[in-house]
Amino acid sequence: MSPALTLSMRREIDRCLIALNYVDDSSFTEQKQEPVSQTELEREVAILRADKDAFVSTLISLQKEKDQLRSELAKQTRKLEEMEMSLTQAHPTIEEVQTERARTRPIVASDVIVAFSQSHFRMIGPSIIHISEGWESCYTKPVSKGIHRLSIRTMTAHALLGVCDAAEYPNYLTSAVFQSQKAAMMYSFDGNLMSAGKNLVQNTKPQKGQEWSAEADLEKRTLHFFIDGVQQQHHFINIPVPLVFAIDVKEKDIPIEITFWGELKQSHVTFEGTGHNLG
Hints:
9-stranded mixed beta sheet; coiled coil; 16 strands; single chain; about 280 residues; 7-stranded antiparallel beta sheet; Jelly Rolls; about 30% strand; alpha+beta
């Protein structure tokens, strides 16, 4: 074989090999790429489907939460409306209590007892001090309508609590109103109901330090009595209108504390009891 031929043949063989190698590489690459691309696409599709399913699931969960929140909001709204309604209904009562407290506390005796003899009584804070000897009386301002209550607490052994005809009390500024034959209805320290200077019936005898209350309903014209908040059996009917509340005191230098004074929105009377007329 000649060297030239050999060289020519070698070049041809090289070209063929190069061509063969190119074709084989291209074919191999195409064969390798096609299945890889399809697999990746399927994988991406699977991921997208999974993302879609997760999104739908999340959306359903959020919708459920939204419905639950709406339901809870509706419940809370109803509760709030009920509370507002209750508050609206309670508001007048709250105002009444606040007004009553503002009107009656702190109690100053000279604001309650407006008719008295300065030579017989002194007003110190919430207390009345009797500074003379013998029975004398002091009085509130006249009242003509509504329900009024006066409560006292005393350590004295001799006192009376009740009401008097407003036209009559000035005649007893320096004496005992319970002696009036036509005007006074009183609860005595010994438990007796007294009017026209006479003992009528017996209620509980007040003890020293107990709260002693007289409650006059000027519409029903009744006068009830209470010891430490307990209603007494016997009371007065057909009481005078207008009237003043009265306190009779005998002992000297023993304070009588006023624990309550004011007009009530509702009576404390809880049972009928037995009513008695003046005299």
